Amino acid sequence: MGAFSGLSERLSHIFSKMKNKGKLTELEVKQAMREVRIALLEADVNLSVVKEFINNVSEKAVGDDILKGLNPTQQVIKIVNDELIRIMGGSHSKINIADKPPTIILMCGLQGSGKTTMCGKLAVMLRKQGKNPMLVACDIYRPAAIKQLQVVGKNANVPVFEKGQINPQKIVKEALKEAEHNGNDVIIVDTAGRLHIDEELMDEIKGLKKTLNPSEILLVVDSMTGQDAVNVASKFNEVMDITGVVLTKLDGDTRGGAALSIRAVTGKPIKFCGVGEKLSDVEIFYPDRMASRILGMGDVLTLIEKAQAAFSEEEALAMQKKMKTNSFTLEDYLVQMDKMKSMGDMSQMLSMIPGLAGKLNGKNVEVDENKIAKSKAIILSMTPKERQNPDLIKSSQKKRIASGSGTSVQDINALLKQFSQTQEMMQKMTNMGKRGMRGMKFPF
Amino acid sequence: MGFLEKLIAGLKRTKEAFSKKMYQLFAGRELNDEFYEDLENTLISSDLGVEATEQILEEFKDECFKRKIKKPEDAKQLLKNIMIDAINYDIQEYSYPLVILVAGVNGVGKTTAVGKLAKYFVNKGKSVVVAAADTFRAAASEQLEVWAERAKVRIIKHEEGSDPAAVVFDAIKSVKAKGTDVLLIDTAGRLQNKKNLMNELGKINKVVAREFPDCDYRTYIVIDATTGQNALSQVEAFDEIIDMDGIILNKLDGTAKGGVVFAISVEKELPVCFIGVGEGIDDLLEFDAKFFIEELF
Q1: What does pTM read for this prediction?
Q2: Between B17, B106, B230, which is nearest A114 by CB?
Q3: Is the ipTM reported for this complex over the cut 0.85?
């Protein structure tokens, strides 16, 4: 949808009619905030949260000096962005560990928010930190929910405690004994999805809290949730006094305004995010990234960090040099593809590049794993000279490569085209990376 | 409980939140700017989105002006009619053999919806088979199996991790051999921006078209009523791959109003066919725009 270009374009349009006097006037701010309001509402930020937010930001913005090097549009977005980060901010992305083990984590949330999967992800994360977690199955209502947790536990390589569909109070009491017996220092309790207005079930989970005295009560929220997020979060918080929030399904294309709404109405930190179907797909929450996402700005920071993790520093330096001198060859491309794979979903990576996010919409440039395998076969069927200099590849060479790699000439053409696009993109990424490091967050 | 009671009970909470606002909105108010702003806020708070809200509001204002409507009661009826028109579609009657493919993103309640649909057709005196084509999520087929038992229908399933298209292929073969009236296909949840998973869905779709060309084939996307504007992107992406025929609007028993169906309607002529109003096997109802809106106000 290109919401970012939407907002920035609309803002530019407003400011183009005004003379830049070095300060933001009341009228300018008012007009700009009308656009910001729409952007936030389209991102599903709750209306009352939007109103309060706009009031705060407007007060701050009027009379604000426009920073050197920024135009009024950028200045407004900077103020909005800073305020979003401030509200969602603070570093809290750690599990509260109990002074005396076991540490008990109680999960709660609506149906289908992703609690069971998140239990497995947290277990894997904690196991990596040297803990010895146990999962407890307390969803006694949904058909096969226990079985699902068992499968998740097996994949996560952690034990799952279950007693069938009996009273959850009994289950957790026995689970505590079992954990002590087996030396599990973390207990993660999966519960049934429940509506926040279902008093009976809310009483049930309140009772679990009383029995367990957990050090962490995490509300699991689907990041695609709309205006109702505030009702859900405030009710759960009121009943359970949650310690934090987990946002799931952030690997989708949602703008995720619910994050801001929840933070604003509960005051509780968002601790983790679910970003994929694999059990390793859990991340800590970065307010700055969420802010740019809500504004639809594409997430340069994540991109850079992910790239850094996948490439060693040396490799990165060598690559950077190649990118700068434009001597990036098909051979590098081959190496690149393996690296990219280890960075995770390519489409996810690409969608993080500002300006691309909207245009691609996960359609054309997305590279799937099969395609990578095909591309590798094609490059491996080229001679070393051809890999260094693709211009050598004319139609007869293409035919040879196609038969060698079991592909078609069209495939070769597509790959070569994609390669040249990648060269361009690499160039763009290095430039952005440099700017990013200087603290420029608005690459437009 | 009869149909109406169930619908009313299921929508009660939705109604409470929405109609309280609507009541306050129209109670003896003058139709001035402040009123329109309050109305706009109410619609946006119900997930209609900025665009659908503006469209409805504009039409409402125009009509109020044209027809010189002054009384809040008349205005309320007018708004109802506009909103009904916005989501009212003629839905073609089913013919048999019928195949319904149920798709959607993760956690919207597809399996549950398939279970309830099975019961819905059993109640109509039809023979039903459900196909467990969600071979990805842990214990998904076990979950569907429980629903199949509850609805007393046959289930076709393979091992976890097997090819979902193969499940569908087998299910069609079985349905043809036994002359079953209805085949319901449960699919894995997939986020709309995951290309591989979306292609997999396309493959399932092709299997149905190829193996069962003479059936009445419908594809439904399940939307969680709690979802915000992302539902638009969901509908767009799924429609591109498998040409959706309708929406099952789920989880209307919460406080969310599912207003995003208005936003969807602005972009695409896609009717809501069923609504889910609870976790019981009978908590799936045919959608009726008029009744839905009446219940909301």
Answers
A1: 0.78
A2: B106
A3: yes
